[in-house]
Amino acid sequence: MSTIKIDKIRKCFGNVEVLKEFNQVFEDKEFVTLLGPSGCGKTTMLRMLAGFEKPTSGTITIDDKVVSSDKTFVPPEKRDIGMVFQSYAVWPHMTVFDNIAYPLKIKKVPKDVIKQKVEAIMEVVHLSQYADRIPSQLSGGQQQRVALGRALVAEPNLLLLDEPLSNLDAKLRESMRFEIKAIQKKLGITVVYVTHDQVEAMTMSDKVIVINDGVIQQVGHPMDIYRKPANQFVAAFVGKIDFIKGVSENGKITITGTDQVLDYDGELKGNVVVAVRPESIHLSRDGGKLHGVMDNKTFMGDVNDCYVRLPNGKGIRVIAPPETYDEYEIGEEIFIDFDTFHVYEDDGTDAATKIIT
Question: What is the C-alpha to C-alpha distance for residues 40 and 234, in angstroms, rounded to an integer?
Fold first, then answer.
């Protein structure tokens, strides 16, 4: 088993604090994703778990064993972890078998045991038929599976993955997401996965930790993160969303620059931001809470991806059923209604502009 406890971890590089009091528990066999834009501190946290970086302060415990603290530091090779990096980092002159066997060879494991373990892992990562090939004879996805097999062959209790799919094309990324998740379930290991790709986080994780500027923004199941974002940053970073400014008073939100209103029974008063996802919006000619003009539309096969322009000039993205593509014309006046929306206090900033990946 591998339960990780992270207590008051901070990390500074010189005068720059890149991670601010990180406190979390990762349960045994849990798939945890650290999600956030570049420079938010997620890879730094992973490197401290691996032992490649020392925390400025705080304690990391793996399976009740302190591996990092003010008084203790266990080096990476003694932490019983496997790690896969963004680059494949496979030995170009070694065969698939020898690449995967390398961690066992340096530990001087008997040859018959090496053969048994490597063959078993090659079966798990679907590389048995490529055992004698060298990396230049493999696709990108196959090379990444070699790196994954090498990380798993020593049977670590904890697997750390640092943006392992970012160098793959879209189709390979999709298939590898499912493969990594299936391998994790089959082997029953704890995984900590770093990415800035919200699709990877949503499809693979048991728990998502959204980080920005070194601070945890929200922790939860992917569905909760998506449906109940804690703030504008999380709402903007996880999924597609539009923000509409308004004023809340007397159970109504008046959309800024218009006389249009939404019913609202929440507690926020004054200047607010309404956040709505495009799949939560319905188009109609018969009436609705808001109205505007069909500004653009794109037929995507399974959906009509379109924009409705409000009288104040704000464009609202709508993911509508495909048949609406022929039903509504560009320039036509149209009503929209929201199934659900979120309301945040307007802090005068644009959440989307803060996100750089």
Answer: 13
Average pLDDT (158-162) is: 93
Q: Is 54 exposed, middle or buried (0-12, 13-18, 19+ CB in 10 A)?
A: exposed
Higher pLDDT, 356 or 322: 322
Q: What CA–CA distance (Å, rounded) separates 352 from 101?
A: 45
Q: Average pLDDT for residues 211-215, to the nearest whole number?
A: 96
Task: Yes or no: say if 337 and 271 are a contact pair by the CB < 8 Å rule.
Answer: no
- pLDDT tens readout for residues 119-132: 999 998 889 999 99
Write down the pTM of the prediction.
Answer: 0.89
Q: Which residues pair with 66 in a beta bridge?
A: 61
Give 133's strand partners.
Answer: none
Asked whether 190 and 26 are in contact (CB, 8 A), the reply is yes
